[in-house]
Design goal:
This protein is mainly alpha-helical. It contains twelve helices and three strands, in the order αααααααααβαβαβα. The chain has three domains: about 70 residues, no CATH class; about 55 residues; about 60 residues, Rossmann fold.
């Protein structure tokens, strides 16, 4: 229902109920419009119309980085939000440790990145010059998507030339890390927006003889995969962001 224009959201808003409650682990994933959609169901008019919300909050915060406006919106919503943190509901879990690993692109993958970057830079500039920034957002998002795909694995791109590049710095690093983690008895969750990337990771895991489970929007027996991971039967769980963002509770 976070997509206010979807048929599901429109139907949900017609429900006649004395009390309304939204339960979500990700109230905001992509943009502030998702937050508006949820509050439009909970308390219609509280944040104004979609157009008013965009003018007053989304544009200043998302496009201009207005920190004061973001703080004001947070204060406005705070009385209506209840956030349960891990240390309150799952005290048995250890604290989270964040480690960032920078991966440098090299060789053919770096060359491909520069080729795609140059081509998309020209395409974006032409689109903005022809129809303005606002009407060029699809072109801009497509450019960013292609660059992200190159960084993940060149084989995600549809062109035959890109698919011939068999170098992936991220995948190589991942496959260097995973055997040691599994040997140490660690449990590993791997998330990706690209289900095709999960497929490539799965192929590499098969080649390395490392067992894994896969959860995507196409998975039919979701519950069995979750139970297997929770029970410790398989150490690695590949999960698409879309499938993992709905009704998934893993504590193993």
């Amino acid at each position: 229902m976070k997509n206010a224009r979807s048929q599901a959201a429109e139907i949900i808003r017609t429900l006649d109920a004395r009390h309304r409650l939204c339960l979500t682990g990700t109230p905001l994933e992509n943009h502030l419009g998702e937050l508006w959609a949820q509050f439009d169901f909970l308390n219609p008019g509280f944040l104004g119309s979609a157009q008013d919300f965009t003018r007053r909050w989304r544009t200043p915060i998302e496009k201009h980085g207005d920190g004061l406006r973001a703080e004001l919106l947070s204060r406005r919503l705070k009385p209506l939000l209840l956030r349960r943190r891990k240390e309150v509901v799952a005290q048995e879990l250890p604290p989270k440790t964040t480690m960032l690993r920078e991966v440098m692109l090299e060789g053919a993958q770096r060359d491909l990145y520069e080729t795609v970057r140059s081509a998309m830079d020209e395409k974006v500039r032409e689109a903005v010059a022809r129809q303005g920034f606002r009407r060029s957002q699809i072109v801009i998002l497509d450019a960013l998507l292609k660059l992200r795909q190159v960084c993940c694995d060149p084989r995600l791109l549809p062109s035959a030339a890109a698919r011939r590049v068999r170098v992936s710095a991220k995948l190589d690093l991942l496959m260097d890390l995973l055997p040691g983690l599994v040997e140490d008895g660690r449990r590993v969750l791997l998330f990706s927006q690209f289900t095709s990337m999960l497929g490539l990771i799965g192929e590499a895991l098969d080649h390395a003889d490392l067992p894994y489970l896969l959860l995507t929007g196409d998975s039919r027996d979701r519950a069995t995969s979750i139970r297997s991971f929770q029970a410790g039967a398989v150490p690695i769980f590949l999960i698409s962001l879309k499938a993992g963002g709905v009704g998934l509770n893993l504590t193993a």
